[in-house]
Specification:
Number of helices: 4
Radius of gyration: 18 Å
Structural class: alpha+beta
Helix content: 25-40%
Strand order of the largest sheet: 5-4-3-6-7-9-8
Order of helices and strands: EEEEEHHEEEEHH
Strand content: 25-35%
């Protein structure tokens, strides 16, 4: 919150909030791409970045084992995307809980967004519900890792104010379509 004094009256207004929606998509040719869509609070696009395709080798699959998906999501996709964007988001929203590990790697808070009927990230007490009254949209859940336990209430309140007028899941559909388009056109392939 910021405030400004004008003729003895205190006026409060919210800081401008940039949201970073990060997604990951797997393709039939064993490639994985990550993408970030940075938007304003109304989910208007400000910047979009997509990674080159990541194709793990059989040796990497053996050496990383069950850690391979996390390594790809956090190190190769998430961190690369965040270092590439010019418009640094104030909040990162993800659909895959592997990306929550970004909370341990950088300072921008990362939260998982899920639909009401989807399983939540299983850390006790770190899930809040978002509702869109007078809307056909189903409630959403915001979850995060214990690294953001102190901030989850504030984050969910900020997202709640956006969710009243904007579908926070829709930017992930844009990311998926854009990733598919980039992949079909083989952009960024070596």
């Amino acid at each position: 919150m910021m405030y400004m004094l004008t003729t003895g009256i205190t006026v409060y207004f919210m800081d401008f909030l940039m949201l970073g929606f990060i997604g990951m998509q797997r393709f039939d040719d064993n490639a994985v791409r990550g993408a970030i869509l940075v938007t304003d609070e109304d989910t208007n696009p400000l910047e979009f970045r997509v990674t080159a395709p990541v194709r793990p080798t059989s040796l990497q699959e053996v050496l990383y084992g069950e850690l391979l998906s996390e390594h790809i999501a956090v190190k190769l996709l998430g961190q690369s995307l965040l270092s590439a964007v010019e418009n640094q988001p104030d909040l990162i929203i993800v659909r895959n809980n592997l990306f929550l590990r970004l909370n341990n790697e950088q300072e921008v808070p990362t939260v998982l967004l899920s639909r009401e009927n989807e399983p939540t990230y299983q850390e006790k007490g770190l899930t809040k519900q978002l509702n869109a009254p007078n809307s056909e949209r189903s409630p959403l859940k915001v979850s995060t890792s214990s690294a953001l336990e102190q901030e989850i209430d504030d984050i969910s309140q900020r997202l709640q104010s956006i969710f009243i007028s904007r579908d926070l899941m829709e930017p992930f559909e844009r990311i998926e379509r854009a990733c598919s388009d980039v992949h079909v056109r083989k952009l960024g392939d070596a």
